[in-house]
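SEQUENCE AND FOLD
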Amino acid sequence: MNTNSSRRSALKNIIGGTAVAFSPMTFSEVFAANEKALGADLNGKINHSVCRWCYSKVPLEDLCKAAVAMGIKSIELQGPEEWPILKKYGLTCAMPWGAGKGINDGFNDLKLHDELVKSYEEIFPKLKEAGLDKVICFSGNRRGMSDEQGLENCAIGLKRLMPSAEKYGITVTMELLNSKVNHKDYMCDTTKWGIALCDKVGSERFKLLYDIYHMQIMEGDVIATIKKSHKYFSHYHTGGVPGRAEIDDTQELNYPAIMRAIVETGYKGFVGQEFVPKRPDALASLKQGVTICDIA
């Protein structure tokens, strides 16, 4: 579905197929907003992805159709039950989930290691069979633990996983999250700590998800960090600061410049749109985000 006609047809199918969830006027507006972009393919320097949870009100198949029409190649943060639906539309899942115990309970807790290792080792063959090569993981919350102890604990658990991850070719990817606004007490909340963990684990199959929104809140200096530390990052997420809204000029980050910095590092993976649309036309906001990031 790379030709202009097929993309236009896909978008018309979206408009016609989601009347229950959205008014016809809303989808007419979406079509109008996308018509210019449908006249030409995307530039191809960025592989575009979108995080499913940000569009939870849109039925998954409708989001798949919208993604295809916009030139998005991936819908992420989806588990094994959703992967076949994505495949039906020629989409991948650039950052899957399906293992672990969520954000709060992670590898910094030694008591959880047996359960976590078992969970991830069970998902690895499913990922490989589906043609996927990453999976998300989390440090867990501090709960009074020092960062030093948490670093040691995480490394112990993740080192247990690496032989299996290496066997199946899966990159276990820990997300960097802010602990100021959204995830109070989360441990892996700075690039420095995450990099120290990567060095301790010592495997190319353990990397970081550099979430631009979260790290702007925690430390700023986004472009310099990407240029300096990109070898530790296997995936990127977007989001407008402040508020995690649209990534246009209503917020403080310069996303075209950030995308150029990512491309200049030689990165060939995906960038996932993870802002939460604040405007009535969520899909129009998504298309705008893709257009902003689709640098020439």
Remarks:
- Residues 1-40 have pLDDT under 50 and may be disordered.
- The first helix runs from residue 4 to 17.
